[in-house]
Amino acid sequence: MKQLQLTLAVLLTLPWASVALAQAKVAAGTPAPAGQSQAAVVWDAAAAEHLLNRAGFGARPAQIARAVELGHAAVVESLLAPSLTDPVDPFAVVSPPRPSKEDMQAMGEEERREAMNQVRRHAREQLAGFAGWWIDQMIEGHDPLRERMTLFWHGYFTSSFQDVKNTQALIAQNELLRKHALGNFGDLVRGIIRDPAMLEYLDNNQNKKASPNENFARELMELFTLGEGNYSEADIKEAARALTGWVRRNQGPDVFAESEFRPGQHDKGVKTVLGVTGKLGADELAEILLDQPACPRWVAGKLLVYLEGREPSAERLEEYARSLRENNYEIAPFLRKLFLDPSFFAQGVRASRIASPIDYLVGTCRRLSIRPPGQLVWLAAGQIGQRLFDPPNVKGWEGGKAWITTSTLLARGNLSGMLLGVVRWEDVMADDALVEEDPSMDSMEGGASMEGMANEMGPGAARRTQKGAAGNAAPKLGEMGRFARYLGEGFRPNINLGARCKRAKAHSDEQIIDFMAAELLAVDLMPESRDVLREFLAQERQQAPGRQQEQEPSAKPGAKGQVSEESLRKLAHLILSLPEAQLH
Amino acid sequence: MQPTQASRLSRRDTLAGMCALGVATWLQGDKRTSPVAPRTLLIVQLAGGNDGLSMVVPHGDDGYHSVRPNLRHSAETVLALDDYRGLHPALKRLREVYASGSLALVEGVGYPNPIRSHFQSFDVWHAGDPRGRSVPEGWVGRFADAAFPADTNPNLIVHVGGTPPYSLHSASHPPAAFVTPAGYRWAGDKDEQEAYANAGMEGAISKDREGKEKAKSQPTEGSSLDFLRKVLSDGQASSGAIRRAAARYQTPVAYPDEAFATTMRHVAALVNGGLGTRVFSAELGGFDTHTDQKNRHDQLMRRLDGALGALLEDLQRTEAGKQVVVMVFSEFGRRVKENGSRGTDHGVAAPMFVMGAPVKGGLYGKHPSLTDLDDGDLSHTTDFRSVYGSLLESWFGVPHERVLGKRFELIDLV
């Protein structure tokens, strides 16, 4: 019960509301910025839901209704305002129990391997723990916009556990992104050029005066600041020289991830990057990049595509790039402008973005008010293409239609069915031919069949096995085993859909379908989908065994049969498997 | 015409009948089995930028040994093809394929004004056009439109992996995609299955009847919802046939026990499963070897050789298998000179492999000069669209300019 209240209270707490209302009055008194001649936003439930979907991870109808009451500007300000409640610290990040060098040398071959496996296992578990904590923040945290933007930056300034292999460094990177998520883009760039995980990920540890390595310099320009076409190959070579000397510190077992500057490896000579000549170092390089007109355009474009789900027009991109530049790369004013912009609420933007796996699964948890373990959701999202801390490549996740393949779309339905407790892992994995071959598959620990519901990781799926072909299969199975165990040990959602329908006075099939669709979908049901659901419910009623059953009866008296809780969950499963449920 | 209730019901009844037989999915793929196995292409992309000079080694070139002091393969270790070039020491099985005359090696492949960004260079290769993603469909998508305009087989184009590459991007022939066949299904009880199948039917109907006469409720062509409905109906139609074909497949050929080889085994299973697939796509990643290249690249070559060697052996066994051409490419090669971290940075031209029973093996193109460099990079000697075009023309009988927009010099590969 406490958890439920917490979830419902996420956005709309009372003290917060009064502050926000006061701010809203101020905002209402200021004239609209020049150039914004479109009609004002009609602030209704659909508009509020749209904002809460994009700036957070979705909301239930009751929350949406309160957002409508509060008013547009007040909701925007509350999203941007720092949360009064700090998130609970994830946990103490402790170093893996790594044996000393001497101890290692004294060990036998097998003992040493086991010791190293333990270290790796520990690192993986810590990462999973942190990922689970992050998912918890998305599902029920107090700062949805910060979580949304941290997720955005995690795809923008991305690093992968597959390459960095250091949990502490990845957590430190997440903290950097989290700290500046609504802050200043310049600070993010300045932070990322000395971020231990990024230095490792993009090979700057090997970028030395005598032997420059271009990897970081190239991605810094191509993906982090300017975009292809706005620099030359010579600029990359010179920028790589400027970045020499910054490395991830080789830490002892009890030290947090840190970077350090090694002057001996730095190229102190004169460089010319994008027309600026001098004895440039990493900090000067960052300022040169931030000074380029291409930079605010690049960042604005990425933000608009992410939050709106479509490419902006040239004029719109220019307008937002200018705004970012005039605000000295402050992100909060950019977001305020966007969230108040009537164009953000236009028909082509609303409910037309394809939900990412995280959007889909976290949104489902929020809309259903269920609280599965965060790690379960993390693993589930990984199976349909978005495993946090494991992006397909340095460009992050492609997003949009790339989330959807014939198999990930079917798998989304399976995963929401698991969250609802109506689909079992065995139902998905069952394959007659394979069962004949391997009757032990139910054990969920290894076996060929475990590969079945494999990681839909895009290019990463192949890449992940690059280092140690056989060695990598094991942890993957371990993860799948963990996923299966979470389910096998009976994750049952604490929901009572029958009671909810009753409370909402949804008795007839039509009413039940309307109510459930409103709870679970960001878009209207297509008439054809409604027909299919109506037919399904009618059939369920007919097949219901009669009145003596234990389930909460929610059918109106006189109906042929009853709609059981199980049937309602199956209905929810069907709704969440529809094309409509993939949009938000 | 608006899809009437009657037509919907009749489809539904057919499906319910199938469910009653315990066949929850459709048999579309099986129905398409034709007596003559179709000509098929498998595209393997080596992601990250494969170092061409380490795959096809110019061991007879003194320049090579001096620019690659740490990474070079000596003349003694390479699998020599002649005095000048040899295959990477790990490509033992592919060396045999070459000797048997079923491997065409096209050297110095690239394109004008090369881009050294992974993503944009892939876009050029995938679009078959220097404009990359500004071109609305991938080259395979355009090929499918030109060669199989009326074919609605959801398994016509299959990507075995996560996100399909842009080359397969197509409004009318989107690919089926999966990592492994087991688990490629939607789970629910019988009634749910029926409802779900009906929901998918709506997508199928909208596809059948695209155009002006759509019902009012049909989403706009090209909208996200329209896209999702098509993928749903394709997924429902595709998954059962693929799962069964893969589960049924028996082969005496031993595939190595790693992910890419397993992917190749799935390809062989589907080729022999009579699904009517015309283009398969798969990826081996990890080629972005900026640091400590040798071990990593050696291992990738071992995996490539093990997986493709097994696949080619397997394909030799059947008529359907003998109708498969395998094309291997990467988004770019790497710099000629190694960097200071015992790795190589992004470069330009690189060799391509075209393999399989129908292929006329041998050397094609021209090895780029190691001395006449373009700002430290090899200059390409063959446009990659010459390879695409040759396959389009001689393997699929499609005028290549219809797909590639203009004419390229063709190579007699198949």
Helix content of chain B: 25-40%
CATH class of chain B: Alpha Beta
> Approximately how much helix is present in the residues of chain A?
55-70%
Give me the secondary-structure category of chain B.
alpha/beta
Assign the CATH topology of chain B: Alkaline Phosphatase, subunit A
Walk me through this protein's architecture.
The complex is a heterodimer of chains A (584) and B (414). In chain A, helix 20 packs across helix 25. Chain A has helices at 2-8, 14-29, 45-55, 61-70, 72-80, 101-106, 109-140, 144-156, 161-164, 167-179, 185-192, 196-201, 215-225, 233-243, 282-291, 294-308, 314-326, 331-340, 357-368, 374-383, 406-420, 425-429, 432-437, 459-463, 469-488, 497-503, 509-520, 527-543, 565-577, and strands at residues 246-248, 259-261, 271-273, 276-278. Chain A has 29 helices and 4 strands. Residues 1-37, 432-477 and 547-559 of chain A have low confidence and may be disordered. Among the domains of chain A are: 1-30 and 38-81, no CATH class; 357-488, no CATH class; 499-582, no CATH class. Chain A has 584 residues and is an all-alpha fold. In chain A, strands 1-2 form a two-stranded antiparallel sheet. Chain A has a two-stranded antiparallel ribbon with strand order 3-4. In chain B, strand 3 and strand 4 (86-87) form a beta hairpin. Chain B has one domain (5-13, 24-404): 3-Layer(aba) Sandwich (Alkaline Phosphatase, subunit A), CATH 3.40.720. In chain B, strands 1, 5, 6, 7, 8, 9, 10, 11 and 12 form a 9-stranded mixed beta sheet that branches. A 3-stranded antiparallel beta sheet of chain B has the order 2-4-3. Residues 1-34 and 205-217 of chain B have low confidence and may be disordered. Chain B is an alpha/beta fold and 414 residues long. Chain B has helices at residues 5-20, 28-31, 52-55, 62-67, 92-99, 118-127, 139-147, 190-208, 224-248, 259-271, 293-315, 384-394, 400-404, and strands at residues 40-46, 56-57, 79-80, 86-87, 103-110, 157-160, 176-178, 279-284, 324-330, 350-355, 362-365, 382-383. The radius of gyration of chain B is 23 Å and the shape is globular.
